[in-house]
Structures are given as C-alpha cells and as structure tokens.
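COMPLEX REQUEST
Ligand: guanosine-5'-monophosphate
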Amino acid sequence: MENEVQDNRRELIEAADHIVITAHKSPDGDAVGSSLALLHILEAMGKKCTVILPDPFAAFLQWMPGTEGIVFYSESPDKCQELLREAGLIFCLDYNVLHRTGNLAPLLEAEIGKTPFILIDHHQQPDTFPDVLISDTSSCSTAQLIYEFAESLGSAELINEVSGACLYTGIVTDSGSFRFPSVTPKTHQIAASLIEKGVDHAAIHRAIYDTNKEDRMRLTGYALSEKLVVNRAHKTAYISLSSEELKRFNYESGDTEGLVNQALSINGVNFAAFLRQSKENEVKISFRSQGSFNVNQFARAHFNGGGHNNAAGAAVQESLEQAINRFESLLPTYESELNYE
Ligand code: 5GP
Ligand code: MN
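STATUS: Structure written out below.
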C-alpha cells in the first residue's frame, strides 16, 4: 500500500506544525468517529492536532475518546478562526463541499490557497479545491477511508483500541451495522483487525443503540403510529414532525435518527422520507431508498440537497406543510422509477 501513494499527503503531514480536522454540521457517527480516529492516529505520529466541528453531536456519541478536546464553531467561533489561521494543514472529513460545514464554511474558504487541504470522503461530486482529494463514493464510510489512509502512510500499526473504537463507530453507524450494499469483504477485514486490536464491538453497539431515553422511544412510537403515511401507489412512505410535536417529546438532536429507515423497512416500500421542522420556516429532510431509485438525484433536483444513491438529505426554507405538499406532488412524476420489486 505504502508505495502506491502518488500524492504528497505524507509531506503535507510532515511539514505541518499544527493540523486541524473538520467534519460536516450535525455531525453523525461517521463524522465524529473519523475525525477523532484521525486525531488519535496523527497524535500517535507525533503531530499536534485539533478537531473542529460546526455544532454539537448527539449524546450517544459522547463516550468516544477525545470528545473533550473538540472545538465547536457554534460555541467558540473566534477560537476556530484562530486555529484555522494557524493550521499548517486542514483535513475535511465526511463532506464533499464546504457549505456542508454551515457557518464554518466561510472560515475554511478563507484558507484556500493559503493552507493545504486534504479531503477524505465518500459523498458524490466532491469539490476540486483540496490539494489532496481522497474520494471513494463506493466506500461504506469515511471511517473505512481513514483506516485505508493510515495504511497508505504505513501507519496502520499505530491504530489501537482508542482510535479503533472511533473507526468502528464510524463504520457501524454509516453501514447500518454492516448491512448496506456498500459493505465489502474489506469492511469486515478492517472490523476484524479492530477487534483484534482490542476494540469492544459489543460495548460500542450498546453505547450507540441501547441507550435510548424514554422520551425518544415515545417520540418514535408516536411518529410510527400517528404520523406515518404509506403511499402504496408510489411505493413510498414518509413521516413528518412539526416543532410543536418535537417539543412535546422534549426533542434533542439525534432523537429522530433512524426513523426514516423504519419507514423504508416496510414491506413493498422503495422510497422513504422524514421531514422535520427545524425552524419556523425551515424543514430538514432525510431521503432513503432501497434498490434503483436515486435519492441523491431527487434531493438535488427538487430540494437543493444531495448525498448518496440510497441516502440523501436536504434543508429547505419553507413551511412543513409546503414541503410535504411539494414532496407528495412530485411522486406521480416518478411513478415508473418507483415501481419495482
Ligand atoms: P441524513 O438523512 O442522515 O441527515 O443524511 C443522509 C445523507 O444525505 C448524508 O450522509 C449526506 O450525504 C446527505 N445530506 C444530508 N443533509 C444534507 C443537506 O442538507 N445537503 C446535502 N447536499 N446533503 C445532505
Ligand atoms: Mn459518512
């Protein structure tokens, strides 16, 4: 592996006194896991390193080693600016375009041309600004790409229980616990090597999936029994929740994660959506499909969003009702694309 590297990733790392690692806003298990894993690996290589995230992540990721050192733009914008200005190298993890970092984007943009960038990601159509672009849209997770990045540097042996737990979290959360088609023999080989290094896979799974709050369980129950709409003609199911409904269940970030997959799990459903009112005139949408229907294209074409073929998202500035109506009215246009076994 080591000899295959054509770019100057190694030189960029060696030359940098201080390295900053960034990931996308509303960071998920892969964003946080990849960032912290890379932090631990670079530190093991003797580098000074900081993780900057646009905003906080869900409580079920809080246990990960290294979270206490993360700097959030939403809490310390000036500190972020200072860190980025002083960085000798900036990593962009788990996002393809700078605007996925929200309010952090202008600060990153300001460093283009001044500071080298390495982007490691698995989303489609990555921007071309980075000096080193490591994009593999077939990879199940950025965490898997971080493992392979360490391999490419000849540093895989530096991965230990600590960085391994972060990598394992990214892989498990983004691969639907090893069940999506993007999982390959290599994914399992990496998971096996992490377990060999001492990663407690059962404890990680419990920390992520079996630490639900009662409010969250009741919100899920309400969403599934009262708010699920199944449109058999278009093999589509969706759930919507207003700010008022979320408030009733003391909603916290991350509480509705996975709801869209529940809608998709219905027999005969090829396309699922979850629409969550995030502000008075803003709706966050998650799209999922199984099989050939391309939700990345759908999200791009109608909601200014994007993502992967089978998992995409968007944020739109309109009322929840408007977003739902627009979504429903689009379905007949896709009648033939949605009707497959
Ligand atoms: P989720 O539904 O879990 O929020 O997002 C699924 C995938 O859709 C993410 O991995 C990301 O690739 C993409 N995505 C989510 N939200 C947005 C968004 O607002 N804009 C774009 N372009 N992609 C998004
Ligand atoms: Mn990811």
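REMARKS: DSSP finds 14 helices and twelve strands in the chain. Residues 9-208 form a domain with the inorganic pyrophosphatase (n-terminal core) fold (CATH 3.90.1640.10).
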